[in-house]
Specification:
CATH architecture of the largest domain: 3-Layer(aba) Sandwich
Strand content: 15-25%
Number of domains: 2
Structural class: alpha/beta
Mean pLDDT: 95
Low-confidence stretches: none
Number of helices: 9
CATH class of the largest domain: Alpha Beta
Helix content: 40-55%
Length: 214
């Protein structure tokens, strides 16, 4: 299966591979395609030369369950560096935490601009994502986790005590108790928290909410 949104290129692909019964060309926006259903097999793989202006949405879309057994992308080098960064790195951010909580990320090699005709203004890299056998969050936690991480990194220069208070409208005592349960230092900032730290924080929040509503 190949997905091509360009209405001029899609017919060319269909014509070029007309004799290949194993290849189906889907002329559609990849963000509107259910990859698992379209693949028709399990496990399935994803390989893509990703449009650099919508890389993040495509990565998130492809990480929806059921996930590919492996995904390999050609992306902008800066994006690959963000995806594979470690907590505390300059490139570490919401994208990193959202990907690494469910997948192992590896930057395999870089691709110079001169490898393309015409050459782009940026360097590229090949990024491999392999789903974790045991993701750090459950399926029903993925939505709340993403919202929490996006919100936290929107306040990345603030300390976690302030971040938690603003995220969930908590008083200092409740926010401090939540961080203590999650094993997070109140003076830490989002950029030093690992995906596992964020996962513990979310579970502490969900548990506290259940106790409050019981």
């Amino acid at each position: 299966m190949a997905i091509e949104v360009d209405r001029d290129l899609a017919p060319i692909l269909v014509q070029r591979h007309a004799g290949n019964a194993a290849l189906t060309v889907i002329a559609q926006d990849v963000l509107e395609v259910n990859l698992a259903e379209s693949a028709g097999v399990s496990p399935f793989l994803v390989v893509g030369n990703v449009p650099y202006n919508i890389t993040t949405p495509i990565l998130f879309h492809a990480l929806q369950r059921p996930r590919a057994a492996r995904a390999v992308y050609l992306v902008q080098k800066e994006v690959a560096e963000r995806v594979v960064a470690k907590a505390g790195d300059e490139s570490y951010g919401a994208l990193t935490a959202n990907v690494q909580v469910v997948a192992k990320a590896e930057m395999l090699f870089t691709v110079p601009a001169g490898a393309f005709i015409p050459p782009p203004k940026v360097e590229s890299a090949v990024l491999r994502l392999t789903p974790l056998e045991q993701p750090l969050i459950a399926a029903d936690e993925e939505g709340p986790y993403r919202l929490m991480v996006q919100g936290a990194f929107g306040m990345r220069r603030k300390q976690m005590l302030r971040v938690v208070r603003e995220l969930w409208s908590l008083d200092p005592l409740a926010a401090g108790a939540l961080l203590e349960t999650a094993g997070i230092t109140p003076t830490d900032r989002p950029e030093v928290l690992s995906p596992a730290d964020f996962a513990r924080l979310l579970r502490a929040r969900l548990q506290a909410s259940r106790l409050t509503s019981a």
